[in-house]
């Protein structure tokens, strides 16, 4: 392995490199706020784009679980997630997968797949900054001008229509990277919607790109529901990001039922309809049985009354005959 000298940290590397190779984070980070990158020995290293594709895009170390993004010449290690972040990520990914499967209008990239982000920057000698970002989740619409899905594609040459990042909160540097630096760069690069997931909720944000090229927060409705303008049919309740109900429950919720296992909703509706029909039939049968019983009871009463009347008439006839015999 090459013994290229490592930069002491990202901030220092940005100061030493020419302006064209600087990332958007330019201020010096105090030592106590610098992330522990012992698990990512090449964090902050300067490499060319060609070197990145050849050696650093995929994990260069078989014995280390590390993934690097490329920020205009600087390697940036993706922080490792914790259990709450993974839980929220998996739940939201399941929503997106349901939406994409139901409407068949987009594809997803996630975890290790990168996409190319070009950012106009007059201060850069090339007039732009270039980044390779590996979003936690990236959404590529079928209408995206750059094609995606070929067997030989290992990265996306276009810009994702939506990006979802689970906020990295081990250090302030990582927080700022997701909430400020990437937010700014994704907007400048043309990502139409940017979602930040945070299990604690403090930094949970959902942004949409305006016509001015800036992000503004997507407002929730009166019921706390967020609706995407990019991914048709995608809507979710803010409270559910913390509660994270199972898909079977969501499938019976009006907010989700149109795209979360819609077949289940159809099956449930059919079963409920059939059950209601059975109940109505059973109630009708019970009503008819009760009517028959009342009719039978009425007939029995009338028969008993007739029998009593006949006995009384017969007794009177016998008495009348006796009186006649006595009088003669």
3D structure, described in words:
The protein has two domains: 1-76, no CATH class; 79-250, tt1808, chain A (Alpha-Beta Complex), CATH 3.90.1570.10. The chain contains seven helices and 13 strands. The chain has helices at 10-16, 49-56, 83-103, 172-189, 240-243, 247-250, 262-327, and strands at 68-71, 74-77, 106-110, 114-120, 128-133, 137-141, 155-156, 162-166, 193-197, 205-209, 215-217, 225-227, 235-237. 28% of the residues are buried. Mean pLDDT is 85; it is low at 1-32.
Portion in strands: 15-25%
Q: What is the assigned CATH homologous superfamily of the largest domain?
A: tt1808, chain A
Radius of gyration of CA atoms, rounded to a whole number? 37 Å
CATH topology of the largest domain: tt1808, chain A
CATH architecture of the largest domain: Alpha-Beta Complex
What count of domains describes the coordinates? 2
- Order of adjacent strands in the largest pleated sheet: 3-6-8-9-10-11
Brief characterization of the structure:
By secondary structure, the protein is an alpha+beta fold. The chain contains seven helices and 13 strands. A hairpin with a 7-residue loop joins β4 and β5.
Q: What layout of secondary structure does this protein have?
A:
Layout (H helix, E strand, L loop, with lengths): L9 H7 L32 H8 L11 E4 L2 E4 L5 H21 L2 E5 L3 E7 L7 E6 L3 E5 L13 E2 L5 E5 L5 H18 L3 E5 L7 E5 L5 E3 L7 E3 L7 E3 L2 H4 L3 H4 L11 H66 L1
Parallel strand pairs: 4-7, 8-9
Antiparallel strand pairs: 1-2, 1-5, 3-6, 4-5, 6-8, 9-10, 10-11, 12-13
């Amino acid at each position: 392995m090459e013994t290229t000298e490592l930069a002491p940290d990202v901030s220092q590397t940005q100061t030493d490199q020419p302006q064209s190779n600087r990332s958007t984070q330019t201020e010096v980070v105090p030592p106590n706020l610098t992330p522990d990158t012992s698990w990512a020995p090449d964090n902050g290293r300067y490499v060319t784009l060609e070197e990145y594709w050849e050696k650093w895009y995929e994990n260069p170390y078989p014995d280390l679980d590390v993934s690097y993004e490329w920020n205009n010449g600087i390697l940036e290690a993706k922080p490792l997630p914790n259990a709450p972040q993974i839980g929220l990520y998996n739940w939201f990914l399941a929503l997106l997968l349901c939406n994409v499967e139901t409407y068949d209008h987009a594809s997803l990239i996630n975890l290790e797949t990168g996409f190319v982000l070009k950012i106009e920057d007059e201060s850069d000698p090339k007039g732009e900054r270039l980044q390779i970002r590996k979003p936690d989740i990236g959404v590529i619409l079928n209408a995206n001008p750059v094609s995606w899905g070929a067997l030989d594609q290992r990265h996306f040459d276009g810009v994702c229509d939506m990006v979802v990042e689970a906020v990295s909160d081990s250090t302030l540097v990582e927080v700022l990277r997701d909430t400020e630096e990437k937010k700014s760069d994704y907007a400048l690069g043309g990502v139409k919607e940017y979602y930040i997931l945070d299990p604690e909720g403090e930094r949970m944000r959902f942004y949409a790109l305006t016509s001015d090229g800036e992000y503004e927060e997507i407002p929730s409705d009166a019921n706390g529901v967020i609706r995407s303008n990019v991914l048709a049919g995608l809507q979710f309740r803010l409270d559910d990001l913390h509660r994270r109900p199972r898909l079977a429950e969501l499938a019976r919720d009006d907010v989700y039922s149109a795209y979360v296992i819609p077949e289940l909703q159809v099956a449930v509706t059919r079963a409920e309809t059939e059950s209601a029909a059975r109940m109505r039939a059973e109630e009708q049968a019970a009503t008819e049985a009760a009517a028959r019983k009342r009719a039978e009871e009425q007939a029995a009463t009338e028969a008993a009354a007739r029998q009593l009347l006949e006995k009384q008439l017969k007794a009177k006839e016998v008495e009348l005959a006796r009186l006649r015999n006595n009088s003669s």
